[in-house]
Amino acid sequence: MLAEQGVAGRDWTWMLVLAAGLLPSGAAWADPLGPETVKLDHGRLRPGLYPIAPGSAVDTEPAQLPFDLNWSIGLKGSYTSSSTEGGNFLTTLNPAITARHDGRHTDLMLEGSTEIARPWDEDGALGVTALRLGLSSETALGANTRLSGNAAIALDHPLPNSPGLDPLVEVPPRVVSGSAGLGLDRSFGRINLGVKANVERSVYGATTRSDSGVTDNSDRNVWQADASLRAGIQITPILEVFGEAALGRDIFDKASPGLGVRTDATSTALRGGIAGRWNGVVSASASIGLGRHDFDAAGLGDINTQLYDASLTYSPNATVNLTASLSTNIEPTGADASGTARVSHVAAAQLDYRVNSWLRLRASADWSLSVLEGNGETERRRGIGAGADYALNAHTALAADYAYSHRDNSNTGLLDTHTVSLGVTLRR
Fold first, then answer.
1. Is 66 within the bounds of a domain?
2. For an engineered disulfide with 120, which of 89, 373, 382, 402 has Cβ 3.0 to 4.6 Å away?
3. Superkingdom, according to UniProt (predicted)?
4. Is residue 162 packed enough to be buried (19+ CB in 10 Å), middle (13-18) or exposed (0-12)?
5. In which order are the strands placed within the sheet that holds 207-209?
6. Could you list the residue range(s) of the whole structural domain that residue 160 is in?
7. Is residue 83 a part of any domain in this protein?
């Protein structure tokens, strides 16, 4: 009886082991008290771990994307009061996306944004007024050599009565542009060298004006190619003296109807200046030079002008960021404009102040003077702006802005606009 009871006791123990799932595979009927001792894998009994087939692998880490992806979408309502057209209300939707990859030697950045607008008037229709898609990269070829590249495509189609638009323009043209560029920077001790090359294509749609009807802008379609060489010497750890030479070429699709010839031209520029960078707090540069725009057509007068360029970035701490710039450019006239080329001088400044983690204040100012060579038309612009961003949480922010713009054109007269806008932005 005792022997039978012992066997029975062992049978009950064996059944409990089976019920608990403690028996390893392949030993289903082994005597638990016999020569084959059961070895329990206590590691498989931890919470969240389950038995697996022999030879299979378990990936305990979540899959990681090869890039950092961020997106945002903004909804904004704006009211604009114009000295010529009165007031109008506009709603815009602004989705944007950014993808960044920080590699061992190469960093890549993809950026895209769209503006979808609807004016609230009788003929208000939903439309895409702006589109941007750009790719940029930077590669470390060595300790002292860096290669950069960029490519972009853009579409601009302002709505009628947009702030700052010529009051005679009833329907602005659609402008599609694409560009690609390369740059190489190399340091040889105290000598810094930089080479850049860029090509751009711009295509213009028709303009509808109140004074002359529909204007075909296909003669403004242009290929532009530019290259520059910059050489600098580091006279102190902070200051660098540099010189820059640039060469450009403009090739148009067809002859200008008003001039009877194509305004193809070769541009050259030579600048000299000084640049400085101090502890990541201040970076600044200033240069002066001469620019020349030589037209292929013998009957067109070549353009000679002085070139002024300056930039400043001031960030004494994480709460304040000030940027300012001044530039001079010789460029094609663009859509809906006569003349041979446009000489423009532009100055701008922007200030950001982060009051705390949920409130940021902004202010901006700009000024410009442009002259259309060949017809004497001049245009002066100036404007100021102020705004605030209020973060409701890590993913939602409210924005309020005010902007004033003044435009004085020698042909079309004065135009003043005031714009007030409110918006909300959701971001990842």
1. no
2. 89
3. Bacteria
4. buried
5. 169-171, 207-209, 213-215
6. 71-427
7. yes
- The average confidence (pLDDT) of the chain is 85
Do the domain assignments include residue 64?
no
- What distance in Å separates the CA atoms of residue 413 and residue 374, rounded to the nearest whole number? 19
Q: Where are the beta strands (DSSP E) in 6-105?
A: 68-82, 86-102
Residue from 411, 427, 417 nearest 378 by CA: 411
Domain count, the chain: 2
Q: Do residues 81 and 28 both lie within one domain?
A: no
Task: Verify that 40 and 76 share a domain, yes or no.
Answer: no
Residues 238 and 311 grouped into a single domain:
yes
244 Cα distance to chain centroid: 26
Dump pLDDT digits (tens) for 342-377. 999 999 999 999 999 999 999 999 999 999 998 888
pLDDT at 269: 97
* Pairwise CA distance, residues 393 & 426, whole Å: 10
The residues facing 138 across adjacent strands are: 107, 148
Q: Where are the beta strands (DSSP E) in 120-238?
A: 127-142, 145-156, 169-171, 175-188, 191-204, 207-209, 213-215, 222-234
Residue with tokens 């609230």: 120
**50 to 39, 47, 137, 203, 271: CA distances (angstroms):** 17, 8, 45, 62, 71
57 part of a folded domain: no
